[in-house]
C-alpha cells in the first residue's frame, strides 16, 4: 500500500520529517535498479513541470512586450 503524504501550508520541520519518512516507506523494499527508476520518474515529472512553467512565463512576458 502506498503511504499518503500530507504537507501543511506552513511547511514546517515536521513536514520535512514526513517527506523523509515517506521516501523511506516508498523505497525500503526496492533494489538499486528499482530505486533508480523511481527517482528518475520523479525527476522527469519535475523537469516537465519546470518546462511548462518556463513556457507559461515566456508567453506572459511576450504578451507584455
Describe the protein's topology.
Elements: H1 13-27, H2 32-64
Written description of the protein model:
By secondary structure, the chain is mainly α. It has a domain at 30-65. The chain is built from two helices and no strands. The chain is flat and about 50 Å long.
Descriptive tags:
2 helices, mainly alpha, 74% helix
Number of separate strands:
0
Give the overall form: flat
Poorly predicted parts: none
Beta-strand residue percentage: under 5%
Terminal CA distance reads 50 Å
**Any idea what the radius of gyration is?**
17 Å
Content-based structural category: mainly alpha
**Percent helix among the residues?**
over 70%
Number of helices: 2
Short description:
The protein has 2 helices and no strands. The protein has 65 residues and is mostly helical.
Amino acid at each position: 500500500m502506498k503511504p499518503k503524504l500530507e504537507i501543511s501550508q506552513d511547511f514546517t520541520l515536521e513536514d520535512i520529517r514526513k517527506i523523509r519518512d515517506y521516501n523511506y516507506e516508498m523505497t525500503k523494499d526496492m533494489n538499486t535498479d528499482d530505486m533508480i527508476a523511481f527517482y528518475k520518474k520523479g525527476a522527469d515529472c519535475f523537469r516537465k513541470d519546470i518546462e511548462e512553467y518556463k513556457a507559461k512565463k515566456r508567453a506572459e512576458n511576450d504578451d507584455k512586450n
